[in-house]
Amino acid sequence: MHDESTPRPSTVHEPEPSVTILDNPTSVEPKTDNNISNENEPIVKPTESSEWLPAIDDGPTATQGHTRAGSAGSILKNRQSAASSLRSRDQAQNGLARSGSVGAASVGRRSLFNNRDGDAVNGSAFINGAGTVGPDATPEVDSSVHARGASADAALSPKQRSRIIKSEQKNSKKLTKIIKEEGKVEKQSLSLAIAELGALQKIQKAAIKREAKCQSSHNKALTSHQKLEATFLDLRTRYEASQAVLNAGADALENARSNARDTTEKMQEKSQEVESLRTMLGVDQREREVKLAELSGKKVSVRRWK
């Protein structure tokens, strides 16, 4: 059995394994090679360690179990070599992309709750679900994993299968305890959020009271201002009317004064004229008497004006 499987590792361990080589019809198990070349079909890809390989049970069928284990071991070793080569190639091509996608998923995960504007609703740790349940906590298992598990389970003995089931049950109990504890923590988170909402409601109530008080003060100030404004407008109207009357009186007074001044000036001019006429009349009368006396032959000693 070992001699039949020796050529396979040299073929699979090439730097770039091709599908044509793995589909060689002369190989020992062509169906297994086809499954290895196609990653989408259910295949058996053992991990780097072969801890799940069947062990040899002590008993009356030990020789028969040893033969079956040796055959399965040689086939699984060949599969392990092919899977290691394919896994190395996949890690070299997709290692960086996978790490980037995981980081993007953790940072830019779509929110389950959005507001009216489409923005994510901010909240506590459980706003997008718990950490141990829900779709975000459940991985998407490739069909090849189920095929590997079924293939490995078929190769296990009842004792090995029972031991694995017991181990899985222990892990399930531990996980159940963690899930229950997380449920309690989520309830506490909800209680805390409700308490914060209650505190915000108290702040809102106090703010509404302050708003009502400020609104009342504003209404009083507005009423007083409107009254004073009405009084001011009335007084301004009366003031403007009084100012107009005063200005009109001042204009009339100035006009009267101007008229009186002009009249006085005319009287002064007329007085000068009258005084001049009176003086001239007195002189003319005296000269006239003298002239008449001369004409009548009377001697009058009058010094003539030169």
Automatic annotation (TrEMBL):
Residues 1-16, 259-276 have a biased composition (Basic and acidic residues). Residues 21-40, 77-96 have a biased composition (Polar residues). It comes from the Eukaryota. Residues 1-172, 256-277 are annotated as: Disordered. This is Uncharacterized protein.
